[in-house]
Structure of UDP-N-acetyl-D-mannosamine dehydrogenase:
Amino acid sequence: MKICVIGLGYIGLPTAILLSEKNEVVGVDVKKDVVDKINDKIMPFKEPGLDRLLEQSGITASTTPRPADAFIICVPTPFDKEVRMADLKFVRSAVESIVPHLRKGNIVILESTVSPGACINVLEPILEKSGLKAGEDYYLAHCPERAIPGNTLHEMAYNDRIIGGIDDASTQLARKIYATFVKGNIYTTDITTAEFVKLMENTYRDVNIALANELAILAEEAKINIWEAISLANHHPRVNILKPGPGVGGHCIAVDPWFLTEATNRCRIINTAREINDSMPAYVLSKVKVMTENIRRPKITVFGVAYKGNVDDARETPALKFIKLAESEGFFVSTYDPLVSRFEMPLSSMEDAVRGTDCIVIISDHDLFKELDFGHLLDNSRHRNVLDTRNVVKSDGTFNLVKLGCSENAHPVYVPPKKPVSMAKVS
Ligand SMILES: NC(=O)c1ccc[n+]([C@@H]2O[C@H](COP(=O)([O-])OP(=O)(O)OC[C@H]3O[C@@H](n4cnc5c(N)ncnc54)[C@H](O)[C@@H]3O)[C@@H](O)[C@H]2O)c1
Ligand SMILES: CC(=O)N[C@@H]1[C@@H](OP(=O)(O)OP(=O)(O)OC[C@H]2O[C@@H](n3ccc(=O)[nH]c3=O)[C@H](O)[C@@H]2O)O[C@H](CO)[C@@H](O)[C@@H]1O
C-alpha cells in the first residue's frame, strides 16, 4: 500500500518508519529542514532506537503530499490558552493539503489528538471539497496515538490501539493498515468515541497526578515523607498513587483535559486538577524562597528544563513557568539540561550553571541527575542547597537537601564544602 504520513514529528516519523516495513511510505512535513534531515537519514529529534531504524528504513520525505492509498495525519494540536480550546489550525492545513490528491477508495486517518467531534465537524467538510463523500467514496478514521515519549518505539508497536471509523468499512481498512506493525490488540469503535477515549486517558492521568501533588503538600504539613507514604500505600492491591512533582508538562497531559471540557461548564474535578498541577511551579518557588530567605540577590540553578525525565522535549514544561516566576521575584536563574537543545531561555554547562549558586532546583528527573555527586558539584556554589522536586537526589550529608513532599527543615543549613571555595560567601 502507498501511504502518505503528514507531519514528521515525535509521532509521525516513528509511525512512518514502522509502516515502511510493509508499505511504501512518503513522509510529509512543512519544515524543509526536517524533510532534508530525514532524506539524509539524520534524526531531527532524540528518541531511543529511532536513529538506527531511520537509517535502515526506505522512507522518503517531501514538503508536499503525494498521491497515495492512505493519508495519515500526525500534525500538532496545540492548546489555545485564550479560549481554552484545541487549536486545529495545523490539522485544517494538513487536511487541505490532502484535498487535491484524494481519490475514490483512499482512506484518511487522523492520529493527532482532537476534541470530540472534530473528525466529523472539521475534517469531513474540508475533505468534501474534493467532491468525494466520506463513507461513500473515501474512508475516514481516527486512530489516536498512545505511545509515551522516551519509549515511543516499543509502545507504538506493543500498545493496544483504538480505531474508530466513520463507518465499519473505514474502521476495518484502518485496522488492516495498523495491523502491519501493531503487535498489541486493536479495538474498534465509532470515530467520536475514539476521540473521547484518548482524551479520557490523559485526563485520568492528570487528575491522578494532581492528587499526588495535593497529597505531597498535605504530607509536608503532617511532617512526613510523601515518597515513603506513597510507596507504602501502593502496596494495597487496588491503590496506585502517582508521583508528585513540579507540575505537569508536555503537549499532551497538560493540555488534553481542556479539549474534553472546552464545550461545557459542567466540569469541576478536571478543571481543579489542571489548576493544582499548574500551581505547582509557584509552590516549588515558595519552598525556594524559604531556603534562600536570608540571601541577598539569590542565584538559583534549574537542573532539567525537559517536561519530564530522559526526553529532549521542553513543550509546556513546568520549568519555564518556574523560571519566569523566579525571575519576576528577583532571583537570578541559571539553567542546565544536557538533553534539551530547543528552549526559549539560554542553557549553560553544568559547571557554569552551578558556579556561585545558592540553590539547585531539580525539575526534570533525568537518570543522569540520579548519578551526580552533588556534594562535589556544590564545591563551586555559594550556598550548598538542593531542592529536589522529583526524589532523585541522595544526600551525602555535605549539603542541605530539601525534597518536595517531605518535612525536612526547609531552611538553608550551611554545611562547609569539602574543598575550600574561592568565592566569597554573601548573605
Ligand atoms: N508526542 C507525543 O508523545 C504524542 C503522543 C500521543 C499523541 N500525540 C499527538 O500527536 C500529534 C502530533 O504530535 P507530535 O508530538 O508528533 O508533534 P510534533 O510537533 O513533534 O510534530 C508535528 C510535525 O507536523 C509538522 N506539520 C505541521 N503542520 C503541517 C502540515 N500542514 N503539513 C505537514 N506537516 C505539518 C510540523 O512541522 C512538525 O514537524 C498531536 O496531536 C499530539 O497531541 C503526541
Ligand atoms: C495516559 C498516558 O499515560 N499518556 C501518555 C502521555 O505521555 P506524557 O509523556 O505526556 O506523560 P507523562 O509521563 O505522564 O508525563 C506528563 C507530565 O506529568 C508529570 N508526571 C508524570 C507522572 C507522575 O507520576 N507524576 C508527574 O508529575 C511528568 O513529569 C510530565 O511533566 O501523553 C501522551 C500523549 O497523549 C500519551 O501518548 C502517553 O501514553
Q: What stands out?
A: The pocket of nicotinamide-adenine-dinucleotide (ligand 1) is lined by residues 6-12, 28-31, 34, 74-77, 90, 93-94, 97, 111-113, 145, 147, 149, 251-252 (CB under 6 Å).
